[in-house]
Structure formats: structure tokens, C-alpha cells
Hints:
With 331 residues, the chain is mainly alpha-helical.
Amino acid sequence: AWETYLRALAMQGEANETVNSSMAFEIAATFDEAVAIDPSFFDAHLQLVELWFSQLDITTTAHSPFGPGYEERLARFKAAVAGAIKHARSDVDRLWVEYNMATVEVRFHDQIRILEQIAALAPDDFEAWGRLLQHYQRVGELDKARDAGIKAWALRQDDDNQASVIYQMRRIDTAETLQMIDALEAEGTGSTGTYYQAHRALLDAGQLERAREMIDKYELRSIDADGSTIMRVRQACAEGRVSDAGSLYEGHVVRRSNTHWLFLTTLGRHEEANELLRQYDTPEHLFILTGFLDYRTFDPREFPLLWRTMQAQDIYRAPVRQQTFQCSRDA
């Protein structure tokens, strides 16, 4: 079972490195072999949970448009979840698997309840506090979100941790976020992720010159054209250079729907931005659409199924807030 599992991991590494989503089902079959040999092999069950989760999310590079249809993918995901829960090594392992199930089924309060249980059992778990920051913000519990964010910041271990906290905290507490950015600059521990996230926070605070420096630092370390261009569009909008912002957008090929939505909302083209996301307002893809609740500029009322789902679960979040650096369509 172990050798088969290692073979599947190697295949997965190759698929990730070459961005070859067509290997997904061969990889799944190999993990299935490991589980068939040892039905109690939790790590293999967990890999299947993550693999089939990615095959339900049509926005990821790991998703393959070929192979089984949605119903079979969902059934395989649920089977993997059941196996992982049954053979979990600890309560924390089991709860993380349950969290994945609650995510796909769009159960907002259960997601938070599960994360709170994980944080109680593993109080030093950055991921639990970071996700609580995210989910509290999504449902409008901003005081709890702020507290979770401060705990997550204290537990950060790498650049990705730092960037993810700044990403969420800037929507809740600008002053606290600026203190975090100041600390990173004093430590000299910035990264492309933190520069990208810090840029928006500095624009929120009206610190345009300092924000411009983040673009320079980002471009010295990153070849991601999407990231660089959206930062320049935001900067141009914040400085009132609406024509420049539009030219930057028109001259750039956007490859990811998430990034395309960010461009359009920054440019004040909200109807176009909403149309881009309507494909996700379906039972199959609703969990993808909930990810946009991370943005205070996102209005769930524009999406009937999402809005009904939130109302049914008594989710009342803060009113939509326009970005401080949005271009005016009237300018």
C-alpha cells in the first residue's frame, strides 16, 4: 500500500509541475489501489478527498474538463470523505475532512463550528485561526474576525501565512493591517505575496507613494503578469488616472476568472463583473461563488441562489463597500 501511495504522489507531483490535469483520474485510480490494499490508510483517503475536491472546482488548474461527470465526481468525493473520517488518526484530522464536506455543501455555520472545534483542540494551528478570520468576515462577524486575525498573525510561520492574514485583515481593520506591514518591513521579511496584499492595504490608507513602492518590490521578484498589471491598474485608479487604468486592462490578456473579476470591479464595471460569475450560481458550483464573499465589494444579492442560501442560514453580512481605489465610470 505504501509503495502504491508513493507512486501516486510521484504522479501527482509530475501533474502539478507540468500543469497536466488529464492525469487526475489515473492518479485517483492509483490512490484507490492503495486504499484497496489497506482500507485503513488514512493518508491515501485524504489524498482522494483533496483530489476529488479539485475535480469539483472548475476554476482550479488541477480540474480536468474530461472524465467523469459532476454526479460521479461528487459521489467519489463523498466516498473519500467517508473513508477519511472513518480512519482519521485524530479528532483534528477528522474535523478537517468534515470542514471540506461543509465547504462543498455550503454550510456556513458548520464551517465555523468545525473550525472553532479545531482551534480549541489545536490552539497553535495557524490554518484554523486563518480560516476563522476568513469565515467570520464572510458572515459579517467582524469583531470575531479581527480577534482570529490577530491570533493567526502571532502564529504565522512563512510568507504565505503573512500574506493570507494581510489579505483578510485589510477588510476589517486598516490600522491593524498597517502595523503588520510595518513589522514586516522592519524585519525585512517581505515576499511577492505580502507585497501584493500590502499594496491594497496601503491604497486603502491613502498612502499612495508607499503603495507604489510595493509594485516595484513585487515586480523585482515576480514574473506574474496578472499580479503586476492588476496592481498597476489599482494604483492608476487610486491616483485618478482612469484612462491609464483602462489602457493597462485592455492591453493585458487575463487568464483567470477570479483575476478578470478583480480587474472589472476595480474599473467600476460591476455589471460585466457580475455576469462573469453567474455561471457559478448553481447547485454544482455554489461553493466556488462563496469564495467571493471574501471581498466586501461583492454583492451576494446579485446572485439568486447564493442569496437564498445565505438567507436560509441567517447570514447577514456588512453592507457592500466600494473599494477606495476603484475607478469612477464617470471620470
